[in-house]
Amino acid sequence: xxxxxxxxxxxxxxxxxxxxxxxxxxxxxxxxxAEVCHACGRPVGPVTATGLAxxxxxxxxxxAAAAAAAAxxxFVWWGFFSD
Length: 83
Ligand SMILES: [Zn+2]
Hints:
Blueprint lengths: L19 E3 L6 E3 L27 H23 L2
Bound molecules: zinc ion (ZN).
């Protein structure tokens, strides 16, 4: 059985070939286990195929946007129906 010669190492069993990930906000290199960027303080998720850290879902921003939309809807309702 001929053994293929080459400098390419055999496939590793790890889920990711990356040793670091980059903050999606400021592109600082972070350790794979980092959950918060030490440079800008933003939360970062697991590494993606491109080596960037995924942006975790921001519940606070989502709730703030939902609250703003609800407040706007209430304001419109009030403007049209409380004359
Ligand atoms: Zn950052």
